[in-house]
Design brief:
Blueprint (H helix, E strand, L loop, with lengths): L1 E7 L4 H10 L6 E6 L12 E9 L1 H16 L5 E6 L4 E2 L4 E2 L5
Antiparallel strand pairs: 1-3, 1-4, 2-3, 5-6
Length: 100
């Protein structure tokens, strides 16, 4: 299982949702974030979206490919991928890959 966090500009969300849907990726969380840079002394006032996706192994490569294609089209995307040791869907009690 994997956890992917992607930072995008708000105008890219509809395109990202469409491309993800083509790959069968339909569950993810989106939140607004304020952009901070190493050069800035504080918040820049710029806003972006943080997209969080928990994935099973078979969705990792299609997700990475969608993001790589968007990047090659000139979209600014920051991507972070990490392992997810466990998952729990509180509503149903499902755990592990079934919870995703």
């Amino acid at each position: 299982m994997y956890w992917i966090v992607v930072i995008i500009r708000a105008n890219l969300l509809d395109i990202l949702k469409e491309r993800f849907a083509e790959q069968g990726i339909v569950r993810f969380t989106v939140g607004e974030v304020e952009v901070l840079t190493a050069e800035s002394e504080g918040p820049t006032g710029d806003h972006a979206l943080r997209v969080e996706i928990a994935l099973n192994e078979n969705f990792l490569e299609p997700t990475k490919q969608v993001l790589e294609v968007l990047r090659s089209e000139g979209h600014e995307i920051d991507t972070h991928v990490g392992s997810l040791s466990d998952a729990l869907r509180i509503r149903t009690g499902e755990t592990g890959s079934e919870a995703i």
